[in-house]
């Protein structure tokens, strides 16, 4: 008599990478394509997909506002891993890094900006700011597909020194 086997889910990694103009239109297109791509990958228009769209919108807006260099695009990379959606937004302004997870300040009530990364921090299960090789930075966020990270798991990765982060890209 053979032992019953538990079917394991397929190990498929899907990746979408696209460069966008560093304009508000480019940021809006990145958000829209996130929803389209996730739906095509079988992640329906639910809270997870909406959270991913908000994260992309905020990170793309930051790339357009704070990471813009005339004539240079920003890059969106989406990955559907086994149990999570990974979002990476890269720009070429490595010297203008956002605060790391856990170091975000709360803006004053009358400030016009400063709330985007607070949304990312709240919606993402994990996020980090990484160096981009050869130049720039990448903000990476992950959303777990099974309803959230475990209570014991950290919300941010520990980021290695700049010389070793190239392997993380």
Summary tags:
169 residues; alpha+beta; 5 strands; disordered C terminus
What's the main sheet like? 5 strands, antiparallel
Q: Reading side by side through the largest sheet, how are the strands ordered? A: 1-2-3-5-4
- Would you report the number of β strands? 5
Number of helices: 3
Q: Percent range for helical residues? A: 25-40%
The outline comes out as globular
Into which percentage range does the β-strand content fall? 15-25%
Q: Mean of the pLDDT scores?
A: 80
In sequence order, what are the helices and strands, one letter per element? Answer: EHHEEHEE
Radius of gyration: 17 Å
Name the structural class. alpha+beta
Q: Kindly, what is the distance between the CA atoms of the first and last residues, rounded to a whole number of angstroms?
A: 47 Å
The low-confidence parts are 148-169
């Amino acid at each position: 008599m053979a032992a019953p086997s538990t079917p394991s889910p397929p190990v498929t990694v899907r990746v979408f990478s696209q460069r966008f103009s560093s304009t508000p239109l480019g940021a809006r297109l990145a958000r829209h394509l996130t929803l389209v791509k996730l739906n095509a990958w079988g992640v329906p228009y639910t809270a997870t997909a909406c959270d991913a769209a908000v994260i992309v919108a905020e990170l793309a807006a930051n790339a357009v506002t704070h990471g813009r260099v005339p004539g240079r695009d920003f890059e969106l990379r989406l990955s559907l891993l086994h149990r999570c959606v990974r979002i990476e937004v890269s720009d070429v302004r490595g010297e203008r890094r956002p605060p790391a997870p856990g170091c975000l300040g709360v803006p004053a009530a009358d400030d016009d900006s400063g709330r985007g990364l607070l949304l990312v921090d709240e919606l993402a299960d994990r996020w980090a700011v990484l160096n981009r090789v050869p130049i720039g930075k990448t903000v990476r966020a992950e959303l777990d597909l099974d309803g959230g990270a475990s209570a014991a798991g950290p919300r941010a990765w520990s980021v290695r020194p700049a010389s070793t982060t190239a392997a993380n890209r």
